[in-house]
Amino acid sequence: MKYDVIVIGGGLGGLECAHILSRSGKSVLVLEKGAQPGGCIQSYRRGGMSFDTGFHYVGGLGEGQSLHAAFKLLGLLRLPWKQLDRVFDQVTVGNRTFSFCQGYDAFVEALAADFPEEREGLKSYASLLRTVEEHQLDGLNPSLSETLFPAGLFEKGAYQYLEETFHNAMLINVLGGTSLKMELCRESLPLFTFLHGNSSFIESSWRLKGDGSLIADSLVNDIRAYGGEVVCHAEVQELIEKDGRLVQAICADGTVYEGDLFISDVHPAVTCGWIRQSQRMRKAYRNRICNLENTFGMLTVSLVMKPQTLKYFNYNRYVYRHPDVWTFWQEGGPVGGILMTCRMPEDGEYTRQVDLLTPMVWDECGQWSDTRVGRRGDAYKEMKERRADECIALAETVAPGFREMVSARYISTPLTYRDYVSSPHGSAYGVRKDFRNPMQTVLSPRTPVPNLYLTGQNLVLHGLHGVTMTSLFTCAEIVGKERIWNMLKDEA
Q1: Rounded CA separation 344/330 (Å)
Q2: Given this model, what pLDDT does residue 241 score?
């Protein structure tokens, strides 16, 4: 059978593209190398419990907000979403704690209470956040010739903007305090990436009652209902080009799939490696893609709490050992900051699961990269346990007695990410965007091969929100911007 579209990689971006295109009447096949689809939103089971790999909360799901229409189109609003508290993030820097509130005005007022001299700057910042969210889909609107938000947001550094807007160094660090939503790299982070990574959560913040696999399962079920196919244990190893166009995907088991169009939700460098001979993909393009730097990875400590010991908190905590949150992850040494987030209980007021996340650079775990999954040796295990202990110690600074509440823990590193989601160097957010060179680091869905398209977090935006936006633009390249725009308007 020959398919209209073959999607390679069953991560969020691939599944969303497959959902939209199968709903649009295309015959769609998704090829996923793993045992289950989902990528960074898949879950795993240990001791009878399910644990998330990368998803924890999402912003902008309220009616009329930035993600509402897209999630309604994708059938994801039917999942059990629960809104977080008005204070959805607490940022603790040293011995001081600051509140991030839902709603742009409330966000300003909460921080202005701690930094009254910065009120006007906070208003200007909130206005820019709001503008980015309101106009993020302008590129799909057939009645507009250009986007309406301020130009140059990719060409300006986030840290530079904050220094120009605010005078209080602590506030600059507090605003970067939810940094685990992105790689907070002072030298390269574009202002647009920083704004987008924060704005939707300020619109409104939501947690799923259950694990991230609910999202993947919902998308897969819809794809199949629309006539599409999702095949797991299908690891693509080569893409065959004929007369300048791709015609086949060959999997590790020798199975050959034919298609008219191909979408890759896998890292662009990995994708280029599948095309061994090409009339279209020149050496210059390959070199550019393969030389792109990737963002840092993540150490995740998934904890099982003893029953009736830790009350569920309907917000997230960011905890930092020292005030310079813009550089802590680069300095090595003990863990300098964590995100602390908990699973919503099925019933009652106590949680049974807490995740602690902290950045981890590849060099810290890459020395074990050539060994088999699950057989990395005692030194690797000791490193993981040491880092987990440091994360728990930092959590205890805001939750006294926390260590004694833990009954079990499971630890993953960038090495885990690399092996299970094909992310080079275990990158948590894909290709590093650089405001000093945006034309090289912000990627288009189009490639030199006319029937090969890209999607996912490596293009423009990362995270649940960003990948969804990117998927819409990838699909627009195939079925047209006007059709995607009208589909969203119908759901608004």
Answers
A1: 32
A2: 95
Please give the average per-residue pLDDT across 6-17, as a whole number: 97
Report the distance separating Cα 488 and Cα 389, nearest Å: 46
Q: Is 321 left (phi over 0), alpha (psi -120 to 50) or beta?
A: alpha
Amino acid, single-letter form, for residue 18: A
DSSP state of 48: T
What is the DSSP track for 358-388? EEE-GGGTGGGTTSPTT---HHHHHHHHHHH
Please, what is the average pLDDT of the chain?
91
Dist CA 299 CA 161 (whole Å)? 29
**Whole-number Å distance between alpha carbons of 32 and 4:** 17
In the block, residue with structure tokens 């409104």? 204
Distance of CA 331 to the CA centre of its chain: 24
The overall pTM is greater than 0.90: yes
From the list 417, 445, 420, the residue with the least C-alpha distance to 430 is: 417
Which residues have C-beta within 8 Å of that of residue 63, sequence separation ≥ 6?
none
- Whether residue 324 has pLDDT greater than 60: yes
| Dihedrals phi, psi of 225, to nearest 5 degrees | -65, -30
Helix (H, G, I), strand (E, B) or coil at 89: strand
At 163, the pLDDT band (50, 70, 90 cuts) reads very high
Q: How far apart are CA 359 and CA 181, in angstroms?
A: 11
| Residue where the block lists tokens 């295990």 | 381
* Alpha carbon distance 14, 18 (integer Å): 6
Say how many C-beta atoms besides its own lie within 10 A of residue 254's C-beta: 7
Q: Where do we find the tokens 């600059």?
A: 172
* Segments in 34-96 forming alpha helices (H): 68-73
Q: Which two tokens stand for residue 77?
A: 């609003």
Residue 128 neighbours by CB distance under 10 Å: 17
Tens-digit pLDDT profile for residues 406-430: 999 999 999 888 887 778 888 889 9
> Is residue 26 exposed (0-12), middle (13-18) or buried (19+ Cβ within 10 Å)?
buried
Percent of the chain with pLDDT over 70: 96
pLDDT confidence of residue 153: 87
3-state helix, strand, coil in the chain (%, to 5): 40, 25, 40
How far apart CA 467 and CA 482 sit, in angstroms, is 20
| Of the listed ranges 86-90, 95-99, 316-320, 363-367, the one predicted with least confidence | 363-367
381-391: string of b/e by CB count within 10 Å (b at 16+)? eebbeebbebb
Tokens encoding 103: 């709603």
CB atoms near residue 35 (< 10 Å): 10
Q: How many C-beta neighbours within 10 Å does residue 64 have?
A: 9
Cβ–Cβ < 8 Å for 104, 113: no
Q: List alpha helices for 103-157, DSSP H.
A: 104-114, 119-134
What pairing do the DSSP bridges indicate for beta strands 28-31 and 229-231?
A: parallel
